[in-house]
Amino acid sequence: MRARNILGIIFANMYDDCLHELTALRTMASVPFGGRYRLIDFHLSNMVNCGIDKVGVVTKGNYRSLMDHLGNGRPWDLARKRDGLFLLPPFNADSSRSRSSRLEALIDLLPFIESADDEFVILTDCNVVCSFDYSGLIDFHKNTGADITVCCKRGIRPNLNDLMTFETDSDCRVTKIAVSPKLTEECLYSLNIVLLRKPFLERLIAEAKSLNYRSFTRDIMQSNVEKFKIYAYEPEGFIRTIDSLKSYYDISMELLKRENRKELFSADRPVFTKVRDDMPAIYGINCKAKNSLIADGCHIEGEVENCILFRGARVGKNAVVKNSILMQGTIVSEGAHLNCVITDKNVTVTQGKNISGAESFPIYISKGIRV
Amino acid sequence: MPRKQECIAMLLAGGQGSRLGILTKNIAKPAVPYGGKYRIIDFPLSNCVNSGIYTVGVLTQYQPLELNNYIGNGQPWDLDRAEGGVHILPPYQQIKGSEWYKGTANAIYQNIHFIDRYSPDYVAILSGDHIYKMNYDKMLSYHKEKNADCTIACIEVPWEEASRFGLMFVDSEGRITDFEEKPKNPRSNKASMGVYIFTWSKLRQYLIDDEADPNSSNDFGKDVIPKMHRAGERMYAYEFDGYWKDVGTIDSLWEANLDLLNPQINIDLDDASWKIYSRNAAAPPHYISADSKVENSLVSAGCEIEGEIDYSVLFSNVTVEKGACVKYSIIMPGAVIKEGAVVQYSIVAENAVIESGAVVGEKPESMKDPSAWGVAVVGAGVTIGKGVTVPSKAMIDKDMKGGN
User: pTM score, two decimals?
Assistant: First the structure.
């Protein structure tokens, strides 16, 4: 079904710390991913692809790159007179401090939520890379009569603080919630994509405010696991949670497999992003490129293997780049060798340099650095 | 009324481009794809915005659906504006009846009221058939400096090709002294680029007079400009020395695409100060597999390449399967080249499918009669069946069934 009666809320800064290298200068939402995207693109696209046309993006700090990326929301068709995209930075210094948790941010946002005339709310973070059709989630929520539906995935729990894991009965109703338990085996863990009725959310927020609750997972979810009908929904598709630089690297590299690309970039659910108007990628004479994802605006004259090249990356003659992620505007000069390296935006590796990490420990070079 | 504008542009985009054959069966020539992600009209539109001209009328007539859809509200070119912006101007019914655009001058004549709304001092008349990057603002400064009534952009072409163009004779001041339309024995190699700037008050009167002339074909090149010249108006040539190419024929369209791969040729689409804007496909970066071999080519977003690509231009979402080989070819959006197929010296239009083992196009060297060689074209949505051979110079607009 189309979901015009759903308000989307995206938390841009949640779990910033787990990827502190990439979020030093930006929000989790604006972390570059997959050769031309920012993490928030997947969530905005999931929302607009199922018909959601009002989305609030909640930020706490470091959000200049995010504002630059989102603009007025046009790439997602969210530049509207009615509804559309709402950037929700802290109201003032006080509210910036008070946005340290999801629940505190929601308390801060209550007026925005109340002003919407939608029936439902979807809450989501940005550290999950996923593309799936929300209509399955919405149908599930309605069919089960859930108070709260949480999207989740079975597998090894990502190493994040404050992450819920669930036990469910045969109808997918959650019977027990643990918060970041020490588990080594597979479990059902939360993707932090939550659907609930808006009046219900408003009630929860008002209650939380009056009772001075601090934690969404503990004070709302965990304490009410018997009282509320909480259901776990397992979406299908390419769904991965980023919990560290290593997992960012591994998940990026998974895109070199065709089946993963097909799931993440399905033709009926395009992933939209800001347009940069680069020309197509140029392959030079005698260049060698294998098993790589290469964006518009790249110039390849050297050798590239098992890499992800963002828009406008350059690999010079006789340069060899393997198992690496080169973000927008990276320049690898003649004769340089890179292996297992992540370069942030506008990094320059000068002639003949040799930088090598390991697949289990990729080397990160931060924005604008000249090696 | 809108605020007065110093200069507005009128873009002639109604042409069929019949020499492009099946490529313009369902689309107007300015909407023909070029350069891996562009359409021809992106060049004049981007030139306008980059030159500070934010009011552009686009005159459409032939098969306008795709073109209208492509231009939309003009946002990709920053032409969605509160004042001015891009306007699509098809012919319309009037109280005295309705008529098509009879010629280029008549098309502008029929839109005098549109132009008058902006009370411009100057009007740039552009065509949607050429690939070039040009600063119209510099040309306008020249026009003003010369106190000209009409300035025509011109480019020096090789002498042996000069007879295909409208040629100009220019004195030391840059003033045009004479014209020659496609002469057998050219005495000048300064060719008109189809880019004009007129002082609007002057042009307006000439358009009205030309419309009243029953013997006129209502064309700029044939009627209005010679009339202005005969009347002794101040007509100047503005010399341009960058890359300019008329992509009016299959061969020239093919060549102009491959020019992008030639480092000797001065058309840099990567120039941040003069970007060519286009409506972008929402596609992921392209993928090249471990088995592929890609050299000396342009490849766009969304492509999946497992075969061999050499000296070719691939538009968005093209698939080239294992063992397939694409050489010296232009592959337009969404086309699929299946396992083991060979595409060479060809243009494959949008969403065409080349089944496995098919061979499209021929090398000039392998022709018995090299003079009979030409680029092969597979039309939009056409399927070339398994093992089918498409000869040089063929134009295929219907499915060709193959063997099993």
Answer: 0.93
